[in-house]
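JOB MANIFEST
job_type = single_chain_structure
chain_count = 1
residues = 300
[input]
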Amino acid sequence: MSLSIKGRPIRFSLAWLKPPPLPADGSMSLFEHLSELRYRLVVASLAIVAGMIVAWFFRESLLDVLKIPYLSAIADLKTKKPDAQTLLVNINLTSPLALALKVSALAGAIATAPIWLYQLWAFIAPGLLSREKKWTMIFLSAATPMFLGGVVVGYFVMPKGIQVLLSFTQDGVSNLQDVNAYLSFLIRIMLVFGIGFLLPLVVLMLNIVGVIKASQLAKYRIYIVFATFVFGAVATPSTDPYSMLLLALPMTVLFLVAEVLAHVLDRRKVRRVGDDLVLAGGVENDQALRQLSDDDGREQ
């Protein structure tokens, strides 16, 4: 039995699950980019929702894990302030459900990181995907552990940040922490660290697709390093330098590694273009090659 509206049959199709056709040269119009973005967002969202459904059945155990930074911070705080009164509470009727959904969503997003990271990469570099599939595997093999590593670092930074923040509590005042507010705070910090660890890799991938040159990275290196430490100071919760350095130093090292790799890749591009032009007999007259060579000479 087929469904119909006003005599018109309704046809169910799974064609939308297929990615939009990709031109061989990677060039796309505005509407094609929007169609590609919609497809990537739908696939990434479905993956996260699927992970969220699976995580729902383990939400109690996951919540116990997410409470460890808070409980650890409270234990350290009470060694200095034995009379400190702290408690995690739900403050309204919908809080338990909201808490369960947040825990499941966080676990689903982390578990499905390889899928939505691939969708991000596929949207950024569609043309490259059609020419050099190896870069997709390189991106995923690097992006997934870097993102997860940042999430783990953010998780272990939290006890120190919580302890510093709660240390400002006045004597005779009890701290009743809304567990939903605490979890939102923890999720934000973990995601900030995960994304922060990903940024140098994104910079390198933008170099690979030709958006950023290594000479530009070298020119603005000092500003990027300064911005990294400012980002670390703003993104971390506590006032101590420990948390900031745990975010800023790895990001700086990863950025410097990305810059070195970008220099290597740019030199390879120069050699590749030179070899092609030698075969074509037009090296001396090629302005693009001369510009690339000049940029490489200035870097040295």
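[summary]
The first strand starts at residue 4 and ends at 5.
Strands lie at 4-5, 8-9, 86-89, 175-178.
exit_status = 0
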